[in-house]
Write a structure and sequence with these properties.
Helix content: 25-40%
Strand content: 15-25%
Number of strands: 29
CATH topology of the largest domain: Rossmann fold
Distance between the termini: 38 Å
Oligomer: single chain
Largest sheet: 7 strands, antiparallel
Structural class: alpha/beta
Shape: flat
Radius of gyration: 31 Å
CATH class of the largest domain: Alpha Beta
CATH superfamily of the largest domain: NAD(P)-binding Rossmann-like Domain
Number of helices: 24
Length: about 675
């Protein structure tokens, strides 16, 4: 891994250029109390931003640890080359007009190639990049205003979007920020490499990633491994959709695995929780900053309103959090603190009998904080400071801090509305070891995301191959033979080149049979599949009516409990995406699928099957026989084995339906697309 310590933790900063952006970099560093040297560089100006300027890089006292290159794109290339030559520690390339401008300027990609060549081994951020803020040391390679303050420890945030980074610094939620870094084009240094470098700063407590696209998947595997080794959690806000769904519409798998199914599968594999909004993202980071990953999903809630108690209970419906019943100790201590008029439950409405009585409130809240709970939520909304007096709420802050100190338990003070948690209160709570959370919905989402999860170590590295350029459709009979070589069970089958031959083949296999027209992807829609034919004459008649010139005749598989779709698609962004879904006609009727990445273990596949809605059928529904789960898993593993051993040139495999019975799982149909590599 490239050492980025000089870049992100500099003692000397060069600011190259004299415009407003460069002056702002100097201003921000001085405002934040940077203790190192700042060296403006300008060939004509005597001073920049109130500091004496050097006429050239060669005139500097020594090679700078990091440089903000605030000149046009052509000059940027020359300056980066000179910085690399003199042994500088890194550079922020602010200029745009590189690869991101490819649609408007054909020179962009070539200029980015030249920039990379100029940098050589010297680390660079960008181009098309705002730079970074180091709030720990007051080093800001940042050409604009921001909303943060110095911190002794905090979370690191990385985003490709400079504007998004600015917005994140403006949060008023009390979240301590250690670093905010923009990656821009990621021409050389990507999000994963940046994250790995920042996590190694002992003052960084957690890492938040705003991801538009992953890029180097191996780098993300290394990042997850490093985070696990350091015991520091990562969360992600992933935006954007894969282009996979636009590539192949010939199968159901392509549409199911398209969009961001691959991204979701990748994050799950890496053990990185994915949040759906910026608010949830920031609130999760607060929990992780104060307590690290939570050990369970067991929570408690206490509030002075039955409405709030009901609301948080409703908010948790459908989320992976639980409110366990109160135990004997909790009930005893709560009764002692609250008296006989409060109905004891979890979530708890403690009414307002003890309001302003800080010792009593402390006792009640401490009583709720059972050691087996991952988090106890104290629901408190503060009045708006511009129109109201909040002095009556000081008792809640004091009680929360005292209960935390008394019990050592994980405690969150949660406002029901996000805006009703004042920033100054949030800062006081965090300083005392209590997590302030803005909003009930955010609290539940953040708690769910903060529960400890591990990355998948035992499945092995992702299978990554170049994207197939022009894959062709393999005939079904050939596809089944190829998959059967890896252990997939297939029906007895024969091929025929005429209706008459199809009839003879059917008689040889034995009735009932299935007749399929070859060379047609969606056979059912095209009238190219007929089930349960009982005679040679029926086969001939049906074949004559099909829009096909050749035919596949197969034994009819009976006794099916359920049908599944098993598909693998080459996703250029995430590797091979393995999709398991309800099969047959249910593929289109039910929104019932789950995705993994190749390779996956049999245990992972078994767990994925249980997440499907159709799992009830597989497990035996209303007295019906259960499907043979081991046979289903073996069938999926066989498909995966084929993919692993034939990955180069492979675009897609689909088995739909996989006919799942009490004693076996048989491929009813198979589709395979790959390049002709001969």
């Amino acid at each position: 891994m490239t050492d980025l310590s000089r870049l992100f933790r500099p003692s000397t900063i060069a600011v190259i250029g004299g415009g407003a952006w460069c002056r702002s970099v100097i201003e921000q560093c001085r405002k934040m109390g940077f203790q190192g040297a700042i060296w403006p560089v300008h060939p004509k100006a005597s001073e920049v931003g109130g500091l004496s300027a050097y006429p050239s890089l060669s005139a500097l006292p020594t090679a700078p640890d990091v440089s903000f290159v605030g000149v046009n794109r052509l000059q940027t290339i020359n300056i980066v080359h000179e910085l690399a030559t003199i042994g500088a520690g890194g550079a922020v390339c602010f200029a745009s007009g590189f690869l991101e401008a490819e649609a408007e300027d054909e020179q962009g990609p070539e200029l980015q190639r030249q920039l990379l060549a100029a940098a050589g081994a010297m680390p660079i951020l960008g181009p098309n990049c705002y730079g970074f803020i180091n709030y720990l040391d007051g080093a800001l390679l940042w050409p604009d205003q921001h909303g943060g303050i110095r911190a002794e420890r905090g979370v690191a945030l990385i985003t490709q979007s400079s504007n998004m980074a600015i917005n994140l610094t403006m949060q008023k939620r009390g979240l301590p920020l250690a670093y905010v870094v923009t990656a821009g084009n990621q021409a050389q240094t990507g999000i994963a490499a940046i994250g790995e470098a920042l996590l190694q700063d002992e003052r960084v407590t957690a890492l938040g990633l705003h991801i538009e696209g992953f890029g180097d998947l191996r780098a993300f595997e290394r990042l997850a491994a490093k985070a696990a080794d350091l015991g520091k959690p990562i969360v992600a806000l992933k935006v954007g959709k894969s282009v996979q769904a636009q590539v192949a519409t010939i199968s159901h798998t392509a549409s199911l695995a398209g969009g961001d199914a691959g991204a979701q599968a990748l994050l799950e594999r890496l053990g990185i929780p994915r949040l759906g909004s910026l608010s949830d993202f920031l609130e999760t980071l607060k929990i992780l900053h104060v307590y690290g990953p939570l050990t369970s999903n067991r929570i408690a809630s206490i509030s002075c309103s039955g409405g709030e108690a009901s609301l948080i209970a409703d908010t948790a419906v459908g989320r992976n959090v639980t409110f366990p019943p109160l135990n004997v100790t909790q009930k005893t201590d709560l009764r002692a603190a609250l008296g006989p008029m409060v109905a004891l439950a979890n979530p708890l409405d403690y009414h307002t009998y003890i309001w302003r009585d800080t010792p009593a409130m402390t006792g009640a809240w401490a009583a709720m904080m059972d050691p087996s709970l991952a988090l106890t939520m104290l629901i408190v909304d503060f009045p708006r400071a511009d129109r109201c007096d909040s002095s009556d709420w000081e008792c809640t802050i004091a009680a929360a801090l005292a209960a935390r100190q008394q019990t050592g338990a994980n405690v969150a003070m949660v406002s029901s509305l996000a805006e009703l948690m004042p920033e100054d209160v949030a800062a006081r709570l965090i300083a005392g070891g209590v997590v302030p959370i803005n909003g009930l919905t955010e609290a539940i989402a953040a708690t769910e995301a903060a529960v400890m999860r591990g990355r998948v170590d035992d499945a092995g590295p992702l299978v990554l191959t170049p994207t197939p350029i022009n894959p062709g459709l393999i005939p079904e009979a050939t596809a089944k033979t190829m998959l059967a070589d890896y252990g997939l069970a297939v029906p007895k089958a024969l091929r025929a080149d005429s209706p008459e031959q199809a009839g003879r083949c059917a008689a040889e296999i034995g009735f009932p049979v299935v007749l399929k027209g070859e060379g047609i992807a969606h056979k059912t829609e095209a009238g190219a599949v007929v089930l349960g034919l009982m005679s040679a004459g029926e086969v001939e008649k049906s074949a004559s009516a099909m829009p096909a010139k050749s035919f596949l005749i197969e034994e009819m598989i009976t006794g099916t409990v359920a049908e599944l779709l098993i598909g693998v698609v080459h996703d250029p962004a995430h590797g091979f995406v393995l999709t398991i879904a309800a099969g047959g006609i249910l593929t289109e009727l039910l929104d019932d699928s789950t995705s993994l990445l190749v390779p996956s273990t049999s245990e992972m596949i078994g767990a994925a099957l249980e997440r499907l809605k159709i799992a009830k059928l597989l497990n035996g529904y209303r007295g019906k026989p259960a499907a043979d789960k081991s046979a289903i898993v073996a069938a999926i593993m066989a498909v995966q084995d084929y993919v692993i051993n034939n990955a180069i040139g492979l675009a897609e495999v689909e088995v739909n339906p996989l006919l799942c019975g009490p004693n076996r799982a048989v491929a009813g149909d198979a589709l395979l697309r790959r390049e002709d590599l001969t």
